[in-house]
Design a protein that fits this description.
Elements (H helix, E strand, L loop, with lengths): L21 H4 L4 E8 L2 E7 L7 E7 L3 E4 L19 E4 L2 E5 L6 E4 L5 E3 L6 E8 L5 E8 L8 E8 L6 E5 L19 E2 L4 E2 L4 E3 L8 E3 L2 E4 L4 E4 L3 E5 L5 E5 L3
Parallel strand pairs: 15-17
Antiparallel strand pairs: 1-2, 2-3, 3-4, 5-6, 6-7, 7-8, 9-10, 10-11, 11-12, 13-14, 16-19, 17-18, 19-20
Length: 249
Amino acid sequence: MTTTAARRVAPYGSWESPFPIDWLTVGRVSLGETRWDGDSITWLEGRPEEDGRATLVRWTRDDGARDISPPGMNVRDRVHEYGGRPYATRGDLVIVSDFATGRLHRVGPDRTSEPITPEGAFRYADLTFDPAGERLFAVREDHSQAPAEAENTLVAIALDGSSEVRVLASGRNFYAAPRPSPDGSRPFFDGRAGRSIDVPTYRRERMEAGVRVPGPAIIAEDETSTFITASFDARIDAAGCIVMERRAG
């Protein structure tokens, strides 16, 4: 004899399941944003037992895997809503995005942190250091004019504690993945073309009188940079000044 359970009628989406949600989450850690940094490996762990917070973890041969982000901080961001790389590491230099405030924090060896970006309705993602480790490049979303659409920019963030944020590129609806050249030159974004271009970069202090640089190129200084377009050459005169000359033809 076959016994059939009584049929139950319930509104859509309210049906009870015999399988509790804990069966799907307990003891299961999600992994993401894995990066290699010299002799160490870093990644993010999403932990259900910590309310789903993302924790930054570092593995080294001597210490194994250990948490390095501040306790209780959710290392995430919501740039473009789906987020982007929310941390950057270089040796002992660790920068993370605090999901609760949107601010970037510099994390010490003892897992304490201090913010390096100002308060406000900002979000930062796709974090990467410049080759000298003096600045941090990022995509920034400015939500200060809500409910108007957020403004997207590429920015450089000072790492000296000044909270200075300098806009490198603006005016476009979407920016992503800023990366400096591996040889130490500065990134260049051509606003008229709406794209990044690869051009040689020269340090001004290393250029002697008589040096000639064909465009397109960048002559970089600590306080400013000079962009030489494709139709010009630049030369250093006897007084050390940059002279721009239109190329014949």
